Amino acid sequence: MPKTEHILLESDVRQVPDLRDARTVHARIEFRSRLRRRVLRLEIIDYYYLSVRSHSRSLLLEYVLDLRFVDAPRRLRHISWRWITFSLVLIALASGIASQIGPSATRWWQHEWLLVCVPVIGVWAFATLVGVYRTTETVSLFSTYGAARLLECTGGLGTFQAFRRFMATLAAHIRLASGARRPTRAEHLRDEMREHLRLKEIGVLSAGEYETAKLRILDQHSPAHGVVTGGRPVDRGR
């Protein structure tokens, strides 16, 4: 007989504010990634919530996150070492060719090495642009126990600087929201499960991401053989 966890999900729901309702805005930021053609608007509203509006070439997504279930912002910088190394090799090669042209008695625009140097410089410029484009900075938000990715913003160099002040304010509101969590572990489990279900229903999480997050939450909060907190059963395998 498969083991089940009995979790009540129906009661004590905190209403997440609608984006169209009047509200208090504590901080906001609009980030435009021209290379990736994406506009991201974030607002901290009513102390405990983050509104997200993401607009790209093919997708418009609007939703609200309950900060009680959000972990501290994470930052990741990806450096395109392969293209940067290739660019450095090319500039070293171009410099070596230029050193052959300089001391020569032949005028530089008539030198045979010039036919090699010009393409090398062109490829170097292309490699440098690709290296800069592929060097990215990403700011992400994950759920506390489910570890589901709730928000990801990737931009070029300077993204961290653009988000620095807003992320400091957001981290402070996440700490504030954590103090408003339900007092017991079982109650917080029910709340976080409901939040992940809500995010799945509005399209922020896929069905697979929701199931994975649900298992992580149950593993974090449940003893080895399951937990019973009352209410109807929720099957781990469902």
Describe this structure in words.
It is a single chain. With 238 residues, the protein is an alpha+beta fold. The chain has two domains: 4-78 and 135-235; 81-134, no CATH class. The chain has helices spanning 81-101, 114-134, 159-178, 185-201, 207-221; strands spanning 4-6, 25-33, 38-45, 49-55, 60-66, 74-78, 136-142, 149-155, 233-235. A hairpin with a 4-residue loop joins strand 2 and strand 3 (38-45). Helix 1 packs antiparallel against helix 2 (114-134). The model is unreliable at 1-12 and 224-238 (pLDDT under 50).
Task: Please outline what is shown here.
This protein has 238 residues and is of the alpha+beta class. It has helices at 81-101, 114-134, 159-178, 185-201, 207-221; strands at residues 4-6, 25-33, 38-45, 49-55, 60-66, 74-78, 136-142, 149-155, 233-235. The longest helix has 21 residues, at 81-101.
Keywords:
2 domains; 238 residues; disordered N terminus; 4-stranded antiparallel beta sheet; elongated; disordered C terminus; alpha+beta; single chain; 5 helices; 3-stranded antiparallel beta sheet
